[in-house]
Amino acid sequence: MSTLQGFTIPKTQTAAVVKSIGAPLEVQTDHPVKQAADLKPGECLVHISHTGVCHTDLHAKQGDWPVKPMNPLIGGHEGVGIIVAIGENTPNSPVKLGDRVGIKWMADSCLNCEFCRRGFEMNCPEVKLSGYTVDGTFSEYVVSYTNHVTPIPKELDSAGAASILCAGVTTYKALKVSNTKVGDWVALPGAGGGLGHLAVQYAKAMGLKVIAIDTGAAKEKLVKSLGADAWVDFKTSKDIVADIKAATGGLGPHAALVTAASQTGYTQAVKYLREGGTLVCVGMPDAEMGANVFWTVFKSIRIQGSYVGTRQDAVEALDIAAAGKVKVTFEQKGLDALKDVYEDLEAGKIAGRVVLEVSKQ
Ligand SMILES: [Zn+2]
Ligand SMILES: [Zn+2]
To answer: Which pLDDT does position 102 carry in this prediction?
Structure first.
């Protein structure tokens, strides 16, 4: 094993633990830290400084998805920190002690199965998911995997980089598979939210025209400041399908990136998309899509699921942010605020993203 020179790994740490599905969150100050000698080949210990909070963390806590999380569980999958130890006999590690790295939803995959080879690492049968099937980033120290942690570009500070690792990668990848080219229109329902405000910026960086769909003056101001070309307020609009079509010259957008946690956004998109358009499904309600088959066929609509991103997508998403083209709007809090953050998430009260400072570094 090897440990970062001059660094002493403590025996215990502060961690936000969910003991069983649906149980309240407990911030424990005496949670054990896996020691360097106990790391397996390929594992690394990351000293976390910042972590974002994602809506998925709430699903993990509540266990309300068809795929169940492990318990007890430490959630979190938008973490940034320093590698302080690497397991003995780790072959060809792409990262070294002292590197600042990101931990994303996909913690590890085998890299050798058909899915890994074809660029669908997230569908690997041996995939490990941060804060879901392995402990995540709501703790001072987390065990991660040298092949999958993502180096953070020096231009980005850790707090600003955190939410790129899930919200950023997810929206960037969804745009990559949206079958659009420079100058095309993309519809972004929920454009003023955590995923949406990043999607606006990635879409602009990719040369797309953005129609932002959300509600309220604050969100309108935010998305316009980020470069949205058109705006539809879903609360004041009398006919949202007609308004979206009109705003895009009458034909509708070439793609829609739907991050909603309810069915309506998906059903609606098939109605307003341009002929030949692509509906990219990103939000994960456990529901039927309800897309009309006649119009899907008649309009040659393509329906595309997009699930997080690969190691390469993460590197690209961070590079675009490092170039100054994407900035996360976030509020910073401490790890002990996580309980309140969950309540605010449930109530839909969070604008942008919340990033927790886990330890001062
Ligand atoms: Zn996430
Ligand atoms: Zn695999």
So the answer is: 98
In percent, the amount of the chain with pLDDT more than 90 equals 87
Minimum mean pLDDT among 220-234, 284-298, 330-344: which range? 284-298
* Ligand index nearest the alpha carbon of residue 307: 1
Listed residue (236, 240, 249) closest to 267, CA to CA: 240
- Whether the per-residue pLDDT at 1 is higher than 70: the answer is no
| 331 and 299, same domain (yes or no) | no
Q: What is the pTM of this model?
A: 0.95
- Give the domain range for residue 45: 2-165+309-357
C-alpha 24/C-alpha 128 separation (Å) is: 24
Report the CATH number at residue 83: 3.90.180.10
Ligand nearest to the CA of 162: 1
| Nearest ligand for residue 59 CA | 1
Ligand 1 centroid from CA 56, angstroms: 5
User: Which ligand approaches the C-alpha of residue 106 most closely?
Assistant: 1
Beta strands 255-258; 278-281: pairing state: parallel
Residues 272 and 330 in one domain: no
Query: In this structure, are 332 and 216 located in the same domain?
Result: no
Residue 152 is classified by DSSP as P
- Cα(40) to ligand 2 centroid in Å equals 18
What is the 277 CA–ligand 1 centroid distance (Å)?
Answer: 26
Rounded distance, CA 291 to CA 296, Å?
Answer: 7
106 token code pair? 């996909």
Q: Are residues 72 and 100 in the same domain?
A: yes
**How many Å lie between the centroid of ligand 2 and the Cα of residue 120?**
8
CA distances from residue 360 to 50, 140, 285 in whole angstroms, order as listed? 9, 10, 36
Same domain, 22 and 82: yes
25 Cα to the center of ligand 1, angstroms:
18
Ligand nearest to the CA of 124: 2
Helix (H, G, I), strand (E, B) or coil at 153: coil
Q: How many CB atoms lie within 10 A of CB 226?
A: 22
